């Protein structure tokens, strides 16, 4: 019986050394993500379901060509949904009117999840926890929870937020998470840097009412209001993780926080980074280090969007700091495409090559995610070409989440050739079982020429990644001999031993 929920926190805070994925120029294991934001995107509201499907397929095909293996899709931009929900309305960014879906009930999250998995890519459902409206000009539907229970919300600047200090709001957000995890086959729940809102100069966050109601009874006086705010966010993160464990414990929970945890000058013991910028801990009340250390999140993806050599927040300084402060858990680096491709090295080249070299040189860094996805698919300054032709030249498997489960699935069996009227197929049997993450989730196909050493650690030998129990073979003239090796990979990305078959193509 699957007992992950009982053991998941057992390795919290472990500093067990992680394998290095920089041993090869082209690592076999590397997280390669991209964000697709829906907030402030106007293109969707003019589309019908057929057009939206074509648009999503085009995005995913271009991302796949660029070597992306995980898509972070924003499904809850502001307490509304790019999926069917009985808790929250359809997003205004989807159709132009909050609460109005497409006539045929098209569900973008369901479609994107299925299409990602067809391509051997993960789908991370991206939620913004507290934001309700990003502008005072936005119209909320009449029966929105904001109108039903206005005492649970605060207005700050031109935006509306769930008050993080009210326990009922944490319960509600966890209910939203449970709804998504229970009904959709997502690989992860993802949240970004928006917890308490970015501070507005001279304007304190208006949570006096909730602090007066809950602060003292939780043990916080006025001198420790910042600690109370951090505790509110800590409680949310911990409760979301517990919600996921009790629903589908194999689904991961990841955060992409603002790139600076704390500046060195803000820490009495000098443990912060040598930077001079806004801080997660002090300004957004996000104690990311604590979440990683306690095992409340399964991966950390700091947004190190600045340039190499930036005076206040140098990329090199920050990637080193995060690599030294991630407690042995998966660490992926958030990369800003435009700032990377616009910035120059002393040689006159853009900074992509050096940033990729740096991310692969740190043993505790296991991949990257690219902001924003629309810049990637538009090939901004050739970034997609550079990834597909050089840095992502060969496919990569996502690093295994061995702290969650470290046993490989059973090998595939009975590899056979199958000829149809149109195709020459390789087919096989596996122990794949829907809803059991310890069985095969997808398969990796390797190919070796006659006499070539069989090395499945070299990604250059990967010719396919599929969730199906079949692979379409190419035609090579009918005289060349090859050996195909197939492995099974579970939902945690543990890979089985290979099963081989010789084929003449």
Can you give me a brief rundown of this structure?
The chain is of the alpha/beta class and 505 residues long. The chain is built from 15 helices and 18 strands. It has 2 domains: 31-391, TIM Barrel, CATH 3.20.20.80; 413-504, Immunoglobulins (Immunoglobulin-like, Sandwich), CATH 2.60.40.10.
Chain-wise SSE layout:
Layout: H1 4-7, E1 31-36, H2 49-65, E2 70-76, H3 92-95, H4 108-118, E3 122-127, E4 131-133, H5 145-148, E5 153-156, E6 159-162, H6 167-183, E7 188-191, H7 208-215, H8 225-247, E8 252-255, H9 280-284, H10 288-293, E9 299-300, H11 315-323, E10 333-336, H12 337-342, H13 352-361, E11 367-371, H14 373-377, H15 383-391, E12 413-419, E13 424-429, E14 442-449, E15 462-466, E16 470-472, E17 481-489, E18 499-504
Parallel strand pairs: 1-2, 1-11, 2-3, 3-7, 7-8, 8-9, 10-11
Antiparallel strand pairs: 4-6, 5-6, 12-13, 13-16, 14-15, 14-17, 17-18
Helix pairs in contact: 2-4, 6-8
What can you tell me about this protein's structure?
This is Glycosyl hydrolase-like 10 domain-containing protein. Residues 30-339 form the Glycosyl hydrolase-like domain. Keywords: Signal. InterPro entries: Divisome_Glycosyl_Hydrolase, GH, GHL10. By secondary structure, the protein is of the alpha/beta class. The chain contains 15 helices and 18 strands. The strands form four sheets. It has an eight-stranded parallel sheet. A four-stranded antiparallel sheet has the order 15-14-17-18, with no helix packed on it. The protein has a three-stranded antiparallel sheet with strand order 4-6-5, with no helix packed on it. β5 and β6 (159-162) form a beta hairpin. Mean pLDDT is 93; it is low at 1-23.
